[in-house]
Specification:
It is built from four helices and no strands. It has helices spanning 10-19, 45-51, 62-65, 71-87.
Length: 120
């Protein structure tokens, strides 16, 4: 038996199409409320809470980041960030004193999107 899938936003539709290798055209969907042929179905409190959640996948490591489909954009962003830090002379590389505790750092790899799921 087929299971119905309820998609309530452009973001959900685009993700569904992406996962199922279906071409997505935003112009084919009308969420304006002007469509009078809609059937109202009750939405559970759990589904309403789920609607307010946004899935954000953040690569934990450089190796994961360069393996994702946004890899070139992430590498460009890293290059821009390093260039800005160099221009602003954000650090000076020196040898640490003996017994010094060295603070680590890490990059956070995420692709920011706006409310219309456009990359920001």
């Amino acid at each position: 038996m087929d299971r119905a899938t309820c998609l309530r936003s452009f973001n959900e539709i685009e993700l569904y199409c992406d996962e199922h290798q279906i071409s997505f055209d935003k112009n084919l969907f009308d969420f304006s409320g002007g469509n009078t042929n809609l059937v109202q179905t009750p939405i559970s409190a759990e589904d309403q809470q789920e609607d307010n959640l946004i899935e954000i996948k953040i690569s934990s490591f450089y190796q994961q980041a360069i393996g994702c489909k946004e890899a070139s954009e992430l590498c460009d962003a890293m290059d821009r960030e390093i260039n800005v830090m160099n221009q602003r002379k954000a650090w000076i590389l020196v040898d640490p004193p003996e017994n010094a505790k060295i603070l680590g750092n890490r990059w956070v790899y995420t692709v920011k999107r706006d409310e219309n799921n456009k990359k920001g």
